[in-house]
Design brief:
Layout (H helix, E strand, L loop, with lengths): L13 H10 L9 E5 L5 H8 L4 E6 L2 H13 L5 E4 L11 E6 L28 H11 E12 L4 H10 L3 E11 L2 H5 L1 H6 L9 E10 L11
Parallel strand pairs: 1-2, 1-4, 2-3, 4-5
Antiparallel strand pairs: 5-7, 6-7
Helix pairs in contact: 1-2
């Protein structure tokens, strides 16, 4: 998918496409209300539109990201509601049938990113955004709503699963993929190894998509 991207906006990469494939497996997507969290270029917003979503909302802290989302959607004739700010702002809206999220998850020496790093820096354990998102996600979903979150295995998927299950949601890994390090991971591989996130000489990472069903009675199987 070719996209327009303003300066300092996260370029769609392997995690985006892994999440997009998982999104296409969600039956409630067709005709449903969809929220794209940390929208970036809006690649996932457009993927949801192509799969038949009924309405689309995109939220991001970056105005440049929202401009990119708006431009890409406009070029394709896709109507989207834009929210500037933290994803908590979506709590004031009616609940969503599908929430898709590609949040920052790369461990960083400092808490909080700046500029383009807002798209990937996630504090010393890579969880500064994930923990808040997991705590909030069930409240964004309708009773039969589905959430999808992608992040790296170095940012502790089991912690995400445990947090979501403690809230009464059903959570399971539904997709994985191993990809070479991108520029950010390569640039801090030494620090990540020193902190025990990766092994010495490691140059690839596992990506994980977690599916969240708001009702624990929903059945979701781990991928084979």
């Amino acid at each position: 998918m070719a996209v327009v991207r303003a300066p300092r906006v996260y370029r769609p990469q392997a995690d985006t496409w892994l999440l997009a494939r998982a999104l296409n497996e969600v039956p409630s997507l067709r005709g449903g209300r969809v929220l794209d969290v940390c929208a970036g270029t809006g690649a996932l917003t457009m993927a949801a539109a192509a799969a038949g979503a009924g309405s689309l909302t995109a939220v991001d802290l970056s105005r440049s990201a929202l401009i990119s989302t708006w431009m890409n959607c406009r070029l394709r004739g896709v109507a989207v509601e834009l929210l500037h700010g933290d994803f908590a702002s979506a709590l004031r809206l009616p609940r969503f049938d599908v929430v898709v999220a590609n949040p920052p998850y790369v461990p960083a020496e400092r808490a909080g990113g700046r500029g383009a790093a807002l798209a990937w820096d996630a504090g010393p354990d890579g969880r500064s955004v994930l923990d808040r998102l997991c705590a909030m996600l069930p409240d964004l979903l309708t009773d039969r709503g589905v959430g999808l979150i992608v992040h790296s295995a170095i940012s502790d998927p089991q912690r995400s699963l445990d947090q979501l299950r403690e809230l009464g949601a059903n959570a399971a890994v539904v997709a994985t993929g191993t990809v070479p390090f991108g520029p950010v991971m390569r640039s801090r591989a030494g620090w990540l190894a020193a902190k025990g996130f990766i092994s010495r000489g490691q140059r690839d990472e596992e990506l994980v998509v977690i599916r969240v069903d708001r009702t624990s009675s929903s059945v979701v199987a781990d991928p084979a």
